[in-house]
Amino acid sequence: MALPPVIYEDDVLLVFDKPSGLLVAPDRWDKARPNLMAQVHARLGGGVANVHRLDADTSGVLLCAKTKAALDFLSGQFQAKSAEKLYHALAVGTTAAGEELTVALPLEADEAHPGLMRVARKKHGKPCATVFTVRERFRGFSWLECRPQTGRTHQIRVHLAATGLPILGDPFYGDGTQLLLSNLKRGYKHRAQERPLISRLALHASELVVSHPVTRERLSLCAPLPHEFIVALKYLRRFAAA
Asked: Is 11 a catalytic residue?
């Protein structure tokens, strides 16, 4: 299996555009499931380490370090919250275009569903905050910028679901809605063989901004929107503009 596309590389950094469906690190319950870092180590050696993680279903910028010094420097930025993260999501439901919303709901592990998270029911949940900005509104859907201020597991997904805007295609926190062209375009004639315009979790890590371990200059790392997203947005803008 080939490695994902490389966004950026130099002597100390290696940055991938991770596809949806690929784990970053070995699965806790299924060690045989393919993961990105196993592929990286097989091809490039064990000295490369992932600085952070993305959910398996989330695509986009994944930052790796080639040296221990670079790993420590970059990890410190995530711990200090100076690394800037930007995601894009297509959510089910609508709110006012241009509206900015900060969700600060603590999260905890969902004991009934191992590996999943939920809004904490007790005061000792982990503090968690995400800033959401509605960039475009369609009939039944919203195109969002998501800026997590903390780095909890499934943070964006749980926060959006809790506010009534679950991410399209989310198998854990979503509502089962599909984005079908037949529901947007009148007179659509190919329902029998129709597939959803987006058949995966509609969440993409678009940009990560960090200080370079050597130069100390701010470095913007960007992953283009997946093709599915571009096509879906084209049809939403054409047939479902609010």
From this structure: no
